[in-house]
Please model this.
Amino acid sequence: MLDDLDRRILALLRSDARLPTAKIAAQLGVARTTVHTRIARMEEQGVIAGYSVVLRDPSRESVVQVVIMLEVQQKETARIIKRLEGYPEIRLCLSINGDFDLLLSAEAPRIEDLDVLVDELGAIPGVLRTNTSVVFGRRIDR
Model:
């Protein structure tokens, strides 16, 4: 199971997989050996499957995607968005109008991972409610 530090490490690696562990450690305020140990564990567990050049694949058949809408307390929006940045499963966060305030697109290899994610998001202080839909397919993907 991933904890907050694991997610923050993954978020940094996702933005630049070539970041040295020393830079990751400095950005997160932890020891370099902690980052190294965490990355090694996630590699061993298969959370990190490898490092490579990834070309865009419109079909994305190997992942499950969900759209999550969040209703949040307005005064907590900035803090909540900052916290959402730490979840590597979240690929997109849009501010929207209507009954919900934020629209998230999230991806993971298994639906069970996204189930855990939605439960964690609902437990964030200031999140009033969530609504989740599974994406069956992409009809237009520019």
Summary: The mean pLDDT is 91.
